[in-house]
């Protein structure tokens, strides 16, 4: 007996998907901003001349990249209250955890972007009296940013998909809202299929934008 698809039953529940999508985008945007704030100093610090700074940044990047995002989320949500006595809400936990997680990858993007600029640019800046940070801000980063934009967009798309991990700590993002809906209407195939379509519609424009930018940068070389 074939399965009878009934997508029409989802129409009356569209506010649930909208609410979940708004929460998903909020978490993604805020965690992306946090990742940028963390990623720049971490990426620059990994190449610093002072070994304590280089060591701290390297340990942060490698530990975060070497552990699953879900473990990081669960650790912050359940272990942080025991260690520090600080209980974060589910949404705040997701923003902090994903911000820290993405920050390690953003740091590598910054580091690779800076490394792509010819070393002679630093020497030229130094010859006219600029310090390291001044030359980085005024000369190096403006040149490196064009190579960093595509991977930044890819990381943003990855963050969008990682928000589904919020269901593990009952954050009402798209996946958790969908699971609750399934418990009410018992139509998992329709709900999960529609959820996949929604995620594709949200994520693909960023992936497409990244591909277009990469092609444009290659033509400009």
From TrEMBL:
The keyword Transmembrane helix applies. Keywords: Amino-acid transport, Cell membrane, Membrane, Transmembrane, Transmembrane helix, Transport. It is a multi-pass membrane protein. GO terms for cellular component: ATP-binding cassette (ABC) transporter complex. The keyword Transport applies. InterPro entries: AA_ABC_transptr_permease_3TM (IPR010065), ArtM/GltK/GlnP/TcyL/YhdX-like (IPR043429), MetI-like (IPR000515), MetI-like_sf (IPR035906). PROSITE patterns: ABC_TM1 (PS50928). It is found in: Cell inner membrane; Cell membrane. Residues 21-210 form the ABC transmembrane type-1 domain. The chain crosses the membrane at residues 20-44, 152-172, 192-211. SUPFAM superfamilies: MetI-like. GO terms for molecular function: transmembrane transporter activity. Coiled coil: none annotated. CDD domains: TM_PBP2 (cd06261). Belongs to the binding-protein-dependent transport system permease family. HisMQ subfamily. The complex is composed of two ATP-binding proteins (GltL), two transmembrane proteins (GltJ and GltK) and a solute-binding protein (GltI). Part of the binding-protein-dependent transport system for glutamine; probably responsible for the translocation of the substrate across the membrane. Part of the ABC transporter complex GltIJKL involved in glutamate and aspartate uptake. Probably responsible for the translocation of the substrate across the membrane. This is Glutamate/aspartate import permease protein GltK. It comes from Billgrantia endophytica. The lineage of its organism: Bacteria, Pseudomonadati, Pseudomonadota, Gammaproteobacteria, Oceanospirillales.
């Amino acid at each position: 007996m074939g399965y009878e698809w009934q997508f029409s039953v989802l129409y009356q529940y569209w506010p649930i998907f909208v609410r979940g999508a708004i929460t998903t985008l909020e978490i993604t945007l805020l965690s992306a901003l946090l990742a940028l704030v963390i990623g720049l100093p971490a990426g620059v610090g990994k190449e610093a001349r002072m070994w304590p700074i280089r060591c701290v940044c390297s340990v942060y990047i490698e530990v975060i990249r070497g552990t699953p995002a879900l473990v990081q989320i669960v650790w912050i949500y359940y272990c942080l209250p025991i260690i520090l006595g600080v209980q974060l809400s589910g949404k705040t936990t997701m923003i902090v955890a994903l911000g820290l997680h993405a920050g390690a990858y953003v740091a590598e993007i910054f580091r690779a972007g800076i490394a792509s600029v010819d070393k002679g640019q630093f020497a030229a800046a130094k010859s006219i009296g600029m310090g390291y940070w001044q030359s980085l801000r005024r000369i190096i980063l403006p040149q490196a940013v064009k190579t960093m934009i595509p991977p930044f967009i890819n990381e943003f798309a990855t963050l969008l998909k990682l928000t589904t991990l919020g269901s593990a700590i009952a954050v009402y993002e798209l996946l958790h809202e969908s699971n609750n809906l399934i418990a009410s209407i018992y139509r998992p195939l329709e709900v999960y299929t529609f959820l996949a379509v929604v995620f594709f519609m949200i994520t693909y424009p960023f992936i497409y934008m990244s591909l277009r930018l990469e092609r444009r940068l290659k033509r400009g070389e």
